[in-house]
Amino acid sequence: MPIIGDRVEIERKPKLGGGGPGKIPHRRGYGGGDDGDHGGSGDFRSREQRMRRYRIGMMLCIISVTAIFVLLTMVYVFRMGKGRYDEDAHRWIHDWVPLHLPYLQLWLNSLLLLLSSTTLELARRSMARKEEFAAMGIVPPRMKRDMPWLGITVLLGCFFLAGQILVWNSLRHQGVFLDSSPSRSLFYILTGTHAVHLVGGLLVLLYAVAGRLMAIRFESQRIAVEVTGWYWHYLAFLWFGIFALVHFARG
Amino acid sequence: MPTSTSNPGSSEKPGFFRHTFSTDHKVIGRQYFFLSLAAVLAGAWLSLLMRIHLVWPKAAIPFLGEIKPENYLAYLTMHGTLMVFFVLSTVPQSGFGTFFLPLQLGAPKMAFPRLTAAGFWIAFVSFLVLIATFFVPGGASGAGWTQYPPLSALASAGPGQALGTDLWLVSIGLFCVASLLSAIGFVITTIRYRAPGMTWMRMPLTCWAWFVTAILILLAFSILLVALTMLMLDRHAGTNFFIPGGLLVSGKSIEHSGGSALLWQHLFWFFGHPEVYIAILPAMGITSHLLAVFARKPVFGYKAMVGATLAIGALGFMVWGHHMFTSGMNPYAGFAFSTLTTAIAVPSAIKTFNWVATLYGGKIRYATPLLFSAGFVSLFITGGLTGPILAQPALDTYLHDTYFVVAHFHLIMAMAGLFAIFSATYFWFPKMFGRMMNERLGRLHFWITLFGAYATFMPMHLLGIAGHPRRYSDLTGVQYVAAMAPLQKFITVAAIVTISGQIIFMVNLFWSMRRGPAADANPWECTTLEWALPSPAPEEGFGVQRPQVSHGPYEYNVTGAEKDFVMQDAPAS
Amino acid sequence: MSAALRLGILLVVLGCLYLFLAQPYWFPAGVSSQSALIDHQFKIAFWVLGAMFVAAHLVLAYVLSKKTRSNGKASGGSWRLEVTWTLAITAVFFWLHISGDRLWSSTMISEPAGQIPLEVTGAQFQWYFRYPGPDGVFGRIDAQKFAKADEGNPLGIDPADPAGRDDFVSTVMVLPVGHVVQLHLRAQDVIHSLFIPAMRFKQDTVPGMEIHSHFTPTQTGVYEIACAELCGIGHYRMRATVRVVTEQEFEKWLKAHAKTSGE
Question: Do A41 and B544 touch (CB under 8 A)?
Answer without folding.
Answer: yes
